[in-house]
Design goal:
The chain is an alpha+beta fold and about 375 residues long. It is built from nine helices and 16 strands. The strands form four sheets. A five-stranded mixed beta sheet has the order 3-2-1-4-8, with helices on one face. Strands 11-10-9-12 form a four-stranded mixed beta sheet, covered by helices on one side. The chain has a four-stranded antiparallel beta sheet with strand order 13-14-16-15, covered by helices on one side. A hairpin with a 2-residue loop joins strand 13 and strand 14.
Length: about 375
């Protein structure tokens, strides 16, 4: 699998391509025409190189504000250095604008669209696009056919007819106030592999990629977008399941609440039959009935329990198994070792003022006698 595929788009629309491995070594020389589909599928990154005559490389002073604000202000800061309307130009800048000077590449929007459409006709969708001049080292000249490419610095480069090169060199030397030393690379006499030379210079790609903003490649984001869509679908399913779970839980709790309410009404009926016809919450009705029983004089349940509690707790020979209270009468279920002990408890309770106590049941068993005492409060 190739690491990078370089495609050179010439001014007449012809293409040539070259593949590189992960270490940047060319896997072959330049190949004429569009790369085959297999080469495009194997490439991890596709880089297009476009004619240097159509791209203006500049530098601008750093602009205040955010990156988005700087990009909006940049065309107007460079307006006097650009021929034509700035609205028709595409301004490309580095990803980070953190220096005193900003490298800028300017190309006509219509030309950039034409390049993208030309590549797409052969199934090519580039990840990055650079001018030929961006692929040259500083202080160098490339002679390629009847044209010349030159670069002084990242912000001073251009292309011209080969016959005009001396005039350009003179202008550059005059601007520098002294002749400069430049390296010339001649690809005219038998050596036509200029693309291999560009590839060697692109070990580190330029900081300014023409494909940004509205022209940024979207195809490389497709896998991530699919992952995000998948994650969104999973989140939606999880949310739906959460609603279903909570709905089922609410339904279950509602049924439990109805069952508990029915049980509470059953207990209310057993303890206070007179409350059956009273509407309201069973717990509140039970509390109301209990408060009424507590405040019902000496015959009230709480008052009655307060009287007999000291007697019941004064011995360990009898144990309380249960109690029932109906109509001012208290029924005690007691367990005693024998009938005599049960009768003794009756006598002690009967000695309390205002109480009438009688044994209503006494059943002998293996563990003693299970008896029942009925206690009624005397009318004061």
């Amino acid at each position: 699998m190739s690491e990078r595929l370089l495609i050179r788009l010439e001014a007449d629309g012809h293409l040539e391509w070259l593949a590189q491995d992960a270490n940047g070594r060319a896997l072959s020389g330049a190949n004429a025409g569009a790369p085959p589909a297999q080469a495009l599928e194997r490439a991890q990154r596709v880089v297009a190189i476009v004619p240097g005559e159509q791209v203006l490389l500049l530098e601008a002073p750093g602009l205040p504000g955010t990156r988005a604000q700087a990009i909006k202000a940049l065309p107007f800061a460079l307006e006097d250095r650009i021929a034509g309307s700035v609205e028709d130009q595409h301004f490309a800048v580095p990803d980070r604008l953190d220096g005193d000077r900003i490298s800028v590449a300017v190309v006509a929007r219509a030309m950039l669209r034409d390049w993208i459409e030309r590549l797409s006709r052969d199934g090519i969708r580039a990840d990055a696009m650079y001018s030929e001049c961006q692929c040259l080292p500083d202080a160098s000249i490339v002679l390629d056919g009847d044209r010349a490419l030159w670069r002084e610095t990242a912000a001073s480069a251009g292309a011209c007819a080969l016959s005009d090169l001396p005039d350009w060199i003179a202008l550059l030397d005059a601007a520098a106030e002294k002749p400069a030393s430049r390296t010339t690379h001649d690809f005219r006499a038998g050596q036509r592999d200029a693309l291999a030379f560009f590839a060697a210079q692109l070990q580190r790609e330029p900081v300014v990629n023409l494909l940004q903003g509205e022209f940024a490649p979207a195809h490389r984001q497709a896998p991530a977008q699919r992952l995000w869509r998948g994650a969104a679908m999973l989140a939606a399913v999880a949310l739906l399941l959460l609603f279903v779970f909570y709905g089922a839980d609410c339904w279950r709790l509602s049924r439990q609440s109805a069952q508990l309410d029915a049980q509470a009404r059953g207990l209310l009926h057993e303890a206070f039959p007179d409350m059956d016809k009273v509407a309201g919450d069973p717990r509140q009705l039970m509390d109301s009935a209990m408060r009424g029983a507590h405040g019902g004089g000496d015959a009230g349940l709480m008052r009655l329990l307060a009287k007999i509690a000291p007697i019941l707790s004064s011995t360990t020979r009898t144990t309380l198994a249960g109690l029932e209270y109906h109509n001012a009468t208290l029924e005690l279920a007691l367990r005693a070792p024998d009938v005599q002990t049960l009768d003794l408890m009756r006598e002690r309770l009967a000695d309390l003022p205002g109480l009438k106590v009688e044994v209503t049941a006494a059943n002998s068993g293996a563990e003693g006698v299970d008896g029942r005492l009925r206690i009624a409060g005397a009318t004061p």
